[in-house]
């Protein structure tokens, strides 16, 4: 299970984004409080940390073990709170990373066939301009502009 948390003392917008994306991606949301990174690594081996710039969520850092494996530079647009189930997440379109590392369905032939068979409710549409549109049951829940993906 992937654990999502924020940097210390996050803004209300960052907390809202964290709660919506954790529900959408089926991640466990952990309020950070005064926990150090070492304490977080004791609780989970896969962590997504949201960092902010001027009160807005700006970076998603993915840690595997206690080593940073990927950083995504983002710009968050629309955030809508919706009741969602824990169905699998499917990414449609070309991405600069493998969605499996985020706990989504794989972008291989088997994952594509399974996605066609299932009546998926959670679909993330990746557009050419880098915009990710998170939908649940055909309704837009979240929009995120992907500005860059950095390894390590």
From TrEMBL:
GO terms for biological process: rRNA processing. The keyword 4Fe-4S does not apply. GO terms for molecular function: rRNA binding. SUPFAM superfamilies: Class II aaRS ABD-related. Residues 1-152 form the Brix domain. InterPro entries: Brix (IPR007109), Brix_dom_Rbsml_bgen_prot (IPR023548). Keywords: Ribosome biogenesis. Probably involved in the biogenesis of the ribosome. This is Probable Brix domain-containing ribosomal biogenesis protein.
